[in-house]
Amino acid sequence: MWRIITVEDYVRIPPSRFGEPLDKVAYEQLKARYEGKVERDVGVFVKILSLEVSRKGIITFGDGATYHKVKLRVLVFTPLNNEIVEGDVVETTEYGAFVRIGPVRGLLHKTQMMSDNIVLYDKASGTFIGEKTKRKLSKGDIVRVRIVSVSYVLTSTGLGLRIGLTARQPFLGKLEWIEEDIQAARKKVAKTGKQ
After folding, report:
1. Sign (positive/negative) of CA torsion 68, 73, 75, 81?
2. What span, in angstroms and rounded, lies between the C-alpha atoms of 150 and 158?
């Protein structure tokens, strides 16, 4: 889920940057601190939309920098369990496909790709093929999936996200498959005369 949140913080302005526009220096400092970072219960900080910097700064003992109170409006992406999202397949491996959902990637395990069993993974083309339906999923395909797990993990660069996905439910999967299923259901209704 995309949200805009308000964050209050302090920004350190080093003495070497005194004389430069305060808003510009504060933005650069905060961009490096926030954008791309993951925080539990918030998700991923995507972009600072605006900021208000107090012109009054404070100096602490032993540090020549000034600290200014700031108020930020930030765009964040918070993946939620059971949320239905669309994304593109950016990588395939023998165990599944990685799907880009906004600023993050989730794993669509091969057992969760379709209601059919995966009979083949062609490593050369990076394509999964269904046993009965012969449906194919490859890098570059756009899929609609449900988020089934979200976990925050500690990585070498800080907190990270692991997202598990499924497409084994009606109206989920590759967008072409969904359209095929809708057309088949319409034909069935038209044939029986029932709605």
Report:
1. positive
2. 16
Measured CA to CA, the distance from residue 10 to residue 34 in angstroms comes to: 12
Q: What are phi and psi of 193, to 5 degrees?
A: 80, 10
> How many Å apart are CA 194 and CA 188, to the nearest integer?
9
Tens digit of pLDDT for each residue in 8-35? Answer: 999 999 999 999 999 999 999 999 999 9
Do 160 and 104 share a structural domain? yes
CA proximity to 104, closest of 58, 152, 61: 152
Return the ∠ at Cα 102 (arms to 23 and 164), rounded to 5°.
130
Instruction: Report how far residue 50's alpha carbon sits from residue 36's, in angstroms, rounded to the nearest whole number.
Output: 16
The answer to whether residues 109 and 35 belong to one domain is no
Q: Which pair of structure tokens corresponds to residue 11?
A: 């920004």
Angle (CA) 160-7-71 rounded to 5° is: 140
Number of domains in the chain: 2
Q: Is the pTM of this model over 0.70?
A: yes
